[in-house]
């Protein structure tokens, strides 16, 4: 068995991935993929990690936890998803992104030390991630939230390098949150490992959050008449309809953090693009791109 850990990050997924996979739990279980309801394992994993303090769990403890998490007696793949695996939101930005994330995942992987692990995570432009993360921490002013961290110095590659260093040999799959509407079926497949011919119910729901109702209906009608021949053609069709029918309230973003300027946002965005290219070049990392 392998465990696919979906790590978030915060402000990228909001449990959409695990909800979609769990909605298809029956057909996934039929091919050996277990997608338990998150409420069954999140507190268990947290409490076990605290109890073990980085030491490997005994076989008895592992068996007991798996009995509580899984429905099947055995599976080829287990999908566990939680945006707080790397940290809780209040500690997501402390000089770096998720500065203890690598150590936390090493501790969590020690709960099932004999089971192969994979890490999967979506990353987001810091120029939109930081305002949204701050917005969700109601009651904290910006100075307390950023706590001396220079937003221009933040790099997602620091987190990825830390995950690699503290968890050697664990494959990592990443994608840009901004690309997710175009690559959502591929993201679902990367995490779940389901066969390429399997259709998942809800696989197109994400598009409905960024495309108008009229656009969704027109695209569905077009694809029914002209079924895409492969992933690349599907992406071209989706991209064309998004260009014409994207919801303006989603596409147009505002930045209202103290002392931020348009030039600063532009620099952060350019830095993010270069950082993502660097992450894609790292050994052991797979980048899903449009």
How many DSSP E strands? 6
Question: In the CATH scheme, what's the topology name?
Answer: Rossmann fold
Structural class label: alpha/beta
Low-confidence stretches: none
CATH architecture, by name, is 3-Layer(aba) Sandwich
Beta percentage is 5-15%
Strand order, biggest sheet?
2-3-1-4-5-6
Quaternary arrangement of the chains shown? Answer: single chain
Q: For the terminal residues, how far apart are their CA atoms? A: 30 Å
Total domains = 1
Mean pLDDT: 94
SS field, number of helical segments: 13
Q: What is the ordering of alpha helices and beta strands?
A: EHHEHHEHEHHHEHHHHHE
Shape: globular
What Rg is obtained from the alpha carbons, in whole angstroms? Answer: 20 Å
| Proportion of helical residues | 40-55%
Largest sheet: 6 strands, parallel
| Level-1 CATH class name | Alpha Beta
